[in-house]
What we know:
mainly beta; 6-stranded parallel beta sheet; 15 strands
Amino acid sequence: MFNRKKQPPIKSLIAHGCKLKGDFSFAEGFRLDGELVGNIVGQTDQASILVISESAHVMGEVQADHIIINGRVDGPVRATVMLELQPKARITGEVTYKLLEMHQGALVAGKLCPMVAEAPAEEKPTLKLAANNQ
């Protein structure tokens, strides 16, 4: 809990009642309260956080380091660090994540795909028993 990095500040907002058509790229933090038809992508050269509120609706791909969803997403979701699905989250599409926190009530209609780092293939160490004095 105390080792968490400080989250980037929310610097961009699409307010409730607003509708945007087209792809949207952001740096640091972005909060969506309205509707977006297109893809949302956090810049990869710095930490990014995306908040999709209860009133928000995205029709397109969503990608960022840390994503918090409490609204509706129709399309694939990719969280490279952490994905938080709040109780009113509704996702239709493939969900890829490194860490997942899913609250009771959240729904995903699609495939959940954890990002698993492949361990390097190395030789297994020889097993030595404690009772063996050799």
